[in-house]
Amino acid sequence: MSNIAVLGAMWGDEGKGHITHHLSRDYDWVIRFNGGANAGHTIYRDGVKFVHNLLPSVDFRHPHVKAYLGSGMVIDLEKLRDEVVEADKTYPGVGRRIYVDKDAFIVEQKHKEEDKASNAHIGSTNRGIGPAYKDKIGRSGKRVGNLFYEGEPAALLDLMKLGVNFTTVLEIEDAFRASNLLFEGAQGVLLDINHGIYPYVSCSDATVGGIIASGFAFAKLDRVYGVAKCYTTKVGEGPFPTELHGEAADDLRKLGNEFGATTGRPRRVGWLDLAALTYACKKGGITHLILTKFDILNGMPKVPVAVMYKKTPTSPSDFFNAVPLTTEVAGWDDAKDYSQLKDFIGLVEKFTKRPVGFISCGTDDRDITNWAA
Hints:
Elements: E1 3-8, H1 16-23, E2 29-32, E3 41-45, E4 48-52, E5 66-69, E6 74-75, H2 77-90, E7 98-101, E8 105-106, H3 109-118, H4 129-137, H5 147-150, H6 154-161, E9 165-167, H7 173-177, E10 181-184, H8 209-213, E11 223-229, E12 231-234, H9 246-255, E13 268-273, H10 274-284, E14 288-292, E15 302-309, E16 324-330, H11 342-352, E17 356-360, E18 368-370
Parallel strand pairs: 1-10, 1-11, 2-5, 2-10, 5-7, 6-8, 7-9, 11-14, 13-15, 14-17
Antiparallel strand pairs: 3-4, 12-13, 15-16, 17-18
């Protein structure tokens, strides 16, 4: 069997949903292992835009692929119901291909209210994720499985009527062992609760450690792909060493449509940061890279890239007051003329010591290319 993971390599919003969606046709299961409805994975099917907050980025056009929401997630059952209902309109009966781990914790209304009141400075999406994880760690949280004994809420009953399966990893371990698995991360390594730029982080495990923590220690990974843009974006406060400001930032933000898929908030933007990307590869367990949104920089004669800091980052604290050292690489007129991208991609591979496996130059499946082929 072949198992891979697709992780956000930076601060999230790298286009990993698009990548996972494209790759999912070759796998039996797509498994979300962390985060909650704070994720916003934007995908396109036949020209129609879909945003998955909780559902894994499965290409539901392929009937053999199933979705699994793992125990490392915190799940808003009402939001999940709404997503499944929406998916069912286009793919009738799709609920039968969706599985939810009963050991996952739930997001309650009180968590959303606490989030709005307490976490604006972090850049929270106000979806109740942080407070739900806080209750989990404080041993006062509630698991999905608890609801079957405490009286099923309407959202849970609705999901069951839609055919959604509720199970655990061990109950269907044999099926997983006999399948090809694609693990999809939420957020990015630099937002990981342990290794990200604390306290400006999410509350879950965004590295390969989150896969093991969700009960999949038996699933040997053949490759771990880290997805990064050819420039960098970030939502919320905290250090951002290559950040642009003023008109330059506005222009890049508009070109890349850099507004949050979940919240609509304008993202902070800057040039690609190879020091941060290298750190993320090492801390996240990333073996290969996927680079996206080359088409956004079409026509730039030179593309700035931060290749290192004055002090190589080895811990989250090193990103505060980091001083990036920047170079410029030959740009490209047309990102789909792949010969024009060689200098840029070569620089990324040189400094990260990770090969680039795929590149993406748009939102269509045809815009994703196997660079290693």
